[in-house]
Amino acid sequence: MIDAAAIDTEAAWHACIAELSDRVNLAQPDELAGTINAVMGRIGVKVTVYLVDHEQRRLWPVPEHGKPTSVPLSVDGTVAGRAFTLVRTHQADEQDGPYRLWVPLIDGAERLGVAEAVLPRAPADTSAVQHACETLVGLVGHLVTVKMPYGDALHLVRRTRPMTAAAELLTRMLPPLTFSCRRASVSAILEPCYDIGGDAFDYTFDGPVAGFMILDAMGRGLDAGLTCATALAALRAARRDEHDLHAMARSADAALTAHFSDLRFVTGVLAELNMDSGLLRYLNAGHPAPLLLRNGKAVRELLGGRRLPIGLSARGIQMGEELLEPGDRLLLFTDGVVEAFGRGGDRFGVHRLIDLAQRCAAAGLPGPETLRRLTHSVLEHQEGPPRDDATLMMFEWSPQAATRTQP
Fold first, then answer.
1. Contact by Cβ (8 Å): 256, 231
2. Burial readout 121-143 (b: 16 or more C-beta within 10 A, e: otherwise)
3. Phi, psi (5° rounding) for residue 26?
4. pTM to 2 decimals?
5. pLDDT in tens, 205-231
6. How far apart are CA 240 and CA 161, in angstroms?
């Protein structure tokens, strides 16, 4: 082991990070935690990786072979949870003993969890060591994402109960919950996360154009999952053949009618924003209208671009258009959000959704944290799993929004 004084040496950190990058190539997913600590232990640094569960309520430690496993931590009310929700590194408030940092674990802008980095003592240059820890954990975030498809160990850390076949089908088709680039950020969240049956989302960023969509298939369970998966695949295929929104929707119409003998349809919103001009063009296929938030306030619903749900023939539809301003947010949602019933029989409703979204905007919360809190409010309103799939998506045309998703 290198002497612990090496924690203050930039070269030692760089050497360890480079060695980790090399050694992890042949590591299995279940060997990731051990590989990290075998390398970082050379300079006396202990790293514990925590992954957030699919409910986004608790942070679960990634096991390390031959070592005791730490206890899970709540996202709400802990230092680790603050690092996760705000995407900011936090130092543990300890007077004596080791120096402890909680670093958000992200891949790009996708929140995966947190990492606890424990050093034997407080370093002479805390800012430099914090930066080194963030660089290390940034690499670990990429490694978690890269290793996840090659085994079940990391998937199992995130699961607290079994997942249905429909949920397994759809979640494997979806992009990461959050993506950010220099000019915009997009986030989504789905519930019930272990039993999602017919909801989906997608997005793409190419040049100045950002495309995004939200879908809700009729019914529940595997039938709805197959319907939604077919529509999503058809929409993607048409988009990648460089078709416009109308042609994409017509391609999905044809796919549903060709492959299912019974009537199947999917509601949804298909949208694209030119980030040079601010022109938003969209189609609404029988779906709840998106909300436009400007300067932290909901200003209107986007009511244009109406057509029949996907799977039902629709012609002569005018494209919806809206000129956005820098900083605008678009909030898209499925009817399972606003139609969630509470014990007293009252619906969650659009007005409650708007009020909570405005509060989160006023608090300056990152987009993914806004959606986490909105979804948990829906679940608390009805005191249990939703009777219908409840999906939220937020698109933010703002460099500041993108910055808030980074450490």
1. yes
2. eebeeeeebbebbbebbbbbbbb
3. -105, 10
4. 0.93
5. 999 999 999 999 988 889 999 999 999
6. 36
